[in-house]
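Design review, sub-item: ligand-bound model
Attendees: FS, YL, KQ
YL presented the inputs for the iron/sulfur cluster complex:
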Amino acid sequence: MTYKDLIKMTIEEGYIGKDFTCNGTCSKCGECCGAILPLDQEDVDKISEYVLENKIHSIAATLILENKLQCPYYTGNKEKGCAIYPARPKICKFYKCDKKGISLEEINEMQKAVPVDMWKLAKDLDKNIERKIRNEERGRRGK
Ligand code: SF4
Ligand code: SF4
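KQ shared the predicted structure:
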């Protein structure tokens, strides 16, 4: 599968035939937030750094029944939307359901993308956050 196939698949899976925006503004409904996203290393590094610095757990840490069809960084809440919005990957920046696709320029920016299981990434990052918190507590006790 080429990265272009992957991007196409991501858009088709996220797109279910409706414009969910409010007159072109994203309503943060999460309908396009899939569990497998095309990410490159830059996207992964940015997300990792952001969640670790801000100690943002994914919803994988709190859900009893996991909805594994949706990205674990979607808060499930239209007010809050994406929990990692400032560090969201390129595909999330480029895609909006009212435009039904992304431009060639944007596709070219994602040439190094590979399919990433967001649940696996989120669970690994959640563990790193826990480790950081434990180390900080240990450091405080040692003082
Ligand atoms: S871009 Fe995604 S989150 Fe925003 S309104 Fe469309 S489907 Fe909902
Ligand atoms: S990173 Fe944020 S915007 Fe992108 S799919 Fe996940 S919740 Fe949606």
